[in-house]
Amino acid sequence: xxxxxxxxxxxxxxxxxxxxxxxxxxxxxxxxxxxxxxxxxxxxxxxxxxxxxxxxxxxxxxxxxxxxxxxxxxxxxxxxxxxxxxxxxxxxxxxxxxxxxxxxxxxxxxxxxxxxxxxxxxxxxxxxxxxxxxxxxxxxxxxxxxxxxxxxxxxxxxxxxxxxxxxxxxxxxxxxxxxxxxxxxxxxxxxxxxxxxxxxxxxxxxxxxxxxxxxxxxxxxxxxxxxxxxxxxxxxxxxxxxxxxxxxxxxxxxxxxxxxxxxxxxxxxxxxxxxxxxxxxxxxxxxxxxxxxxxxxxxxxxxxxxxxxxxxxxxxxxxxxxxxxxxxxxxxxxxxxxxxxxxxxxxxxxxxxxxxxxxxxxxxxxxxxxxxxxxxxxxxxxxxxxxxxxxxxxxxxxxxxxxxxxxxxxxxxxxxxxxxxxxxxxxxxxxxxxxxxxxxxxxxxxxxxxxxxxxxxxxxxxxxxxxxxxxxxxxxxxxxxxxxxxxxxxxxxxxxxxxxxxxx
Length: 504
Description:
This protein is α/β, with parallel strands linked by helices. The chain contains 14 helices and 27 strands. The protein folds into two domains: about 35-200 and about 350-440, FAD/NAD(P)-binding domain (3-Layer(bba) Sandwich); about 205-345, FAD/NAD(P)-binding domain (3-Layer(bba) Sandwich), CATH 3.50.50.60.
C-alpha cells in the first residue's frame, strides 16, 4: 500500500515535446477513498473574465473526463474566485460609454453563475471575492469574500469536515435559541492546482471592472448623466481604446444622422484626443504595410475630433473647482479645462496578491512557454499557471488569451495525470506513463486581426499587414462591438472570433 501522505507533497515529472500526446485511457472512477483522497483536491481559478471562464469551461467539458484513471485517484473540485458576479463586455465599452441605449445592460454585463448550470453534475463552487494573498509554501490563497453567501461557500470548500463546520457556526443565544454565526469575511483556501487569470484593469472605471460589476455600472450611469450637459470631453490615449472612444463619442453625440448625408447637431461638443505619441494607433502602424494611423486620424478629423500629438497628460485633477470640471496638465507646460475626462492610457495587471518572486518589474506573472510558473526559479511548487493579461507572455490583447488556453489545458491535464500515477505507485511503477506525457508550448498568435471601429459605418483594421476596408470593419465588429457574442463567450468559453496560433 502507498504511504498515506498529502498529495501536494508528491514531486512532478514531465517531459517537453511538440508532438501530440496519445489519447488518454478511458475514465475509471473508483468509489473507494484512499487516504486523503476522500477530500476533493481544489483546482482554483482566480478570475472570471475571458481567460478564467474559458479555462473553467474547458476543464469541466473535457479535462475532468480524462482524469481519475487509477483506483487510488483523488476527486477534484473546481473553485472559481472573482470579485464580480458578472462579466463586463469591455470590448463594447467605447460605444457603451456614449449612452445607455446603444448597448443594453444585459448584453454588457453577463451573469456568470447561470452559465455554469449545465455543469451541475460536477463539484463546482463559484465564490464572489478577491484574492488578497498567496502562500506558495503552504499552497493556499487568502480570499476576502464579498457578502455572506460568498463567505459561506468559501467555508464549505476550505477542506473542513462538515462536523467541524457545523460546530463552529452554531452557538446558543441568551434565550437558549440556536443562531448561526456569520462566516469570517477573510478565509484561506488550499489549492492542488492554481490558475491565475486575474487579467488587468484599465485606469478608467468605464473601461474595465474594478471590483463588483455594480461599480462599473454606476460609473457608466454617472457618465451618461453628465455627458448630456457637457460641452467638452478629453480622451487621453492614442491606442485602440482611445481612438474608438473618441470616434464613438463624436459620432453619436455630434451628429443627428449619418446616412445618406451626415448631419451635424447645432451645438456639437468639443472632443479632444491626446495621443501621447507622434501618431494614432502606433502599435498597428509598426506591424502593417498599410497606414491605419493616417486613416484613423483622417476619420477622426472628419468627425470634428481635435487630435493632439507629441504631448502627454501629466496630471488630471477632477472637480478642482465648484463646477465639477477637470483640469488637465500637459507635458508641454500647458493645461486644459474640460467637463469630462476619460483615461484610455493602458492597463495594469491585477496581481497584487502574488508574491514578488512570481512577477517581473511591471507586475506581470512570469511563466515559461508552457504557461507554468517556473517552480525551479520561484519555489512556487508544482501546478501553478498564469494565463491572459496578468501573465508576461500576453500583449494585453484577447487573441493571446484564447491562443494560450489549449496549451494550458494540455499541461494541466498532464500534470494532474502525473500526480495520479505517483499516488498509484509512489515507487516508480508508472514511470513509463509519466514519461509519455508531453507538454504543450505556447508559440504566440499568427497574423492576428485587429479591428478599430471609429465612425458610424467605418473604421480601420489590419490583417496580415494589409488594410481592412472600413465597411468590413463595420460589418465584422462595428455594428454592436460583438455584444451579441457575449453570452456565448460566458456560457461556452469560446472566443469572439477564431484565433490562429503560430506554427510550432
